[in-house]
Amino acid sequence: MRHLMSPLDFDTKELDELFDLARDIEVNPEKYAHACDGKILATCFYEPSTRTRLSFESAMTRLGGRVIGFSDANSSSAAKGESVSDTIRVISCYADICAMRHPKEGAPMVAADKSLIPVINAGDGGHQHPTQTLTDLLTIRNLKGRLDHFTIGLCGDLKFGRTVHSLIHALVRYEGIRFLFISPEELRVPDYITDMLREKNIPFEEVIRLEDVMPELDLLYMTRVQKERFFNEEDYVRLKDFYILTPAKMELAKKDMLVLHPLPRVNEISVEVDEDPRAAYFKQAQYGVYVRMALILTLLGLTNQ
Ligand code: NCD
To answer: Which CATH class is domain 7-128+288-299?
Structure first.
C-alpha cells in the first residue's frame, strides 16, 4: 500500500507517468468516468480549505466514486479528543482512500502509519502540500512543455507557505533550475531549505524587491501571507500587502513568463492581472482536478483500465 506524504514519494519517472495519465484524463474524460465505481474517498479536513477539498471531491466524483468526510475538526470526533491514529483506523473501515489536511506538521504521517488504506497529505501545517505541488508541476509541464531549465521566482510568504516548501523540494530534482526567493526579511525561506540547496549546489538568491528580478523570471509563483500561522496580528497587518502584482509590474516581465498562485489570493495579485495571458492560476486550479484524479487511480492501483 502506498501513501503520498511528500512530493518526493514519487520519483521523476513516476511523476511523468502520473502527468501523462492526467493529460489523458483531460482529453478523454469519458474513458475514466467509471474507473472508481464502488470506491469511496474520505476527506478529513481539520483545517479550512476550498480548492483542495473540493478538487478531491470533484476528482473522485468524476471517476464515478463517492465521497464522505468532514471539513471542520469541530464537527468530527477530534472535538471529543480522539487521536488521528484512532480516527484513521475507523475511517479505514468506511473508505478506500483518504485525503487528510491538518494544522499540525506530520499529522497525516502519523495517520498513514496506522492506516489500512492509502492516505494523501492534503497539507500539514506549514510543512508540505504535495498535491498542490503535483498541480504546480503539471501546470508548468503543460503550459511550458518542460520541467527543467527555468529561473523561478517564489514571492511572498516563503517562511510559512507549505506550497513553496513542497515545490522547491520537487523542483531540485530537475536540471538547470535557479531559484529567486522574493520575500521580506521576516518571511524568508527556512534555513533547512537553503541548507539543502547549498548542499546540492543549486543556485538561489534571496531578494526583497520583486521589480529587481522580474525581467529574469520564466515563472513567478506568488503566495498569500499565511495569516493563520502568525503569532500576532500586528506582524500580519504590516506584511500582508508587502507585494502586490500589478499590470505595471507585469510589463517588466518576459512575454512568456507564467504567473502561478496556489490560491486563495488575498491582495497579492491585483484582479487586472487576471486578463493577462500569462496569468495561469485559474488554469492551475483546473489541472488540480486532473492530477488528483490521476493520483487516486494510481494509489488505488487502478491505472490499467
Ligand atoms: C494553499 C494551502 O492550503 O497551503 N492553498 C491550496 O491548497 N490551494 C495555499 C494557501 O492557503 O495560501
So the answer is: alpha beta
